[in-house]
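User: Here's a chain of 286 residues. Predict its fold as tokens.
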Amino acid sequence: MFYERKSSLPTVKGSLITPKVAHASEISSWLIDMDGVLVREEHPIEGANRFLELLRKTETPFLVLTNNSIFTRRDLSARLKWSGIEVPEENIWTSALATAGFLQSQRPNGSAFVIGEVGLTTALHDVGYTQSENDPDYVVIGETRTYSFEQITKAVRLVAEGKRFIATNPDATGPSVDGPLPATGAVAALISKATGKTPYFVGKPNPLMMRSALRKLNAHSETTAMIGDRMDTDVVGGLEAGLHTVLVLSGVSDEAAANRYPYRPSRVISSVAVLADEIEASLKDS
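Assistant: Prediction complete.
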């Protein structure tokens, strides 16, 4: 059960708040999921641009987090702009970037056999990794739209030989205007079934991705909030990283979903428009 927090600021309709949650104006930095929070099927969600503009106006640090490893930050910024959402590329953090950073911290300037698109291959290249089929340090699986049986077979054989198995994220499907698409987790499961080996997933809900984003912002978990539309990735990852968590009902999860899990978010709200209203109200009162 969720309880409305008493506040000197106006209560915003659609916001269910637990006693310990911070008001939006009290958050020092934000991690924001993309699909279901800012956009839905390539259309902007109500209040998204207003919320982002308020963060820029108040000079509040933020990163847009996505498990999508297909695109580079520049690509995603352009795609968001096409959808009507303004997010500079430096404010985007992907599972591909988190994976590249993790591998570089583990085995600097190593090598990897990669199944993935330009977002992943560019991120690995930028940290000094080379791509190789011959005795690579890692087998790295990311999302792609061009899976080939030959590549998957090569990955299966390398993993079976004992190569370290990494996947950018565990998402089994991804969204599209025509319906769900098989994603990284589905292909990783195929390789796991064939080898008996489970990959290490770097992206959400692994709090490692949240912590890498915090380091990018030079932010502290105690004053940072994670906004997402999924209980099983955004919320649990945020909780395990020690963040405030905000579940929006503008994407995958409905209000009933918050009660089905053994954990709960700090807040459940209709959309980021609620947070924009709170920040605007605090600016008027200041």
